[in-house]
Design brief:
The strands form 4 sheets. The chain has a 5-stranded antiparallel β-sheet with strand order 7-8-14-10-11, with no helix packed on it. The protein has 11 helices and 14 strands.
Length: 413
Amino acid sequence: FALVLSLFALPLGAMLGLEKLIAFPDKTQRKKYLIAFAITGGFALLAAILAGMGSYRGAVDAQLANVPDWFLDAIRDDRASLLRADAFRTFIFTLLAAALLWLFTQKKLKVWVLATGITVLILVDTFPIAKRYLNNDNFQRNPERTFFAETEADAFIKADAPNHYRVFNLQNPWNEAKTAYHHASIGGYHGAKMSRYQDLISNCLSEETERLIDGLQQGSADFGNLTALNMLNTRYIKFGDQKEQVIENPAALGSAWFVSRLNPVTNAREEMDRLCRINPEFEAVYDATAFEPENERFSDSGSIRLVEKKPHTLVYESENEGDGFAVFSEIYYAEGWEAKIDGTPTEILRVNYTLRGLEVPAGNHTITFSYRPAPFVKGNTVMSVASWLLIVGFIAALVLQIKKIIKKPQLSV
């Protein structure tokens, strides 16, 4: 934001100074104009002349620790050359602009000629600079088609995958977003990532990723030992764009499942430590200081499946012989999410530090999660009413205006 302010303020100040010079071309203004030229042009000329005296070393050079010295020297020479070229370029444009202003103050140029000349100099100066950052490569027809093109690995996953699954891309997993264009991804980047999910990454997922990579390199990956990845329904592990670079995880637990035991803990640290060691297929961890389930032992002889998935609605169908506890592979977020079993509201519990859990009575049920945060619902209602009032008001004003035109007496010739 500070850079934007300077990019706005400096040209504005220059335009105000130019306006004052044109409006009052007296000797006082000419002196100020010469001082401005001497400072700006002199600084640019000095930078060009002394460009070779800098060391041109920076923190980024630490990333080049393994390259030979001649390569580093060449990079630093290039940096000096870039500074020298742009400094001379700046001096030339400053000199040309100063020449135009001097001719104007000597009354040898009209205002429109000065304005045209300054405009041409600005365009000639800025256009090549802009082309360095925004050039023809940025204006391809439908660039998404190229950047997000479906790879062989993506096509293989889509053809092989069940209805609901997630993909884990081992290539820079927490800073890439292309995977999410084609699949539900457990990775990706966001500057405001949920703290609980970041905790899960730092304490469980990062360690499991290292173990997974080591196991794959040795040809003996133990998928059953990947607690967090399995509970996040990570059905596929991807480490390239070829179909041979996709590995199916047979231990992924799916969209939801029943567990037989709940393990109580009393704080977040204990919950995270316990989570990384449990078998999530049969047990779950919960914070006893925040939630109070009716039981801690349940029947896990049942099935549950996701039948409908929308951004604001998730619908599951369950079948279990005894009272069960279902864990859902969805992030727990208390603000706005509501759960109903056969239309009856029920409490959502947070289990395994990040996921949702529900106590489900025996029998066949339809379980629905819906996202209806109160501020959104109320705000949406107010906006809808205001929009309809605006439309009605516009129509009423239009009708009244038409009636006035129709009733207006016609002048006779």
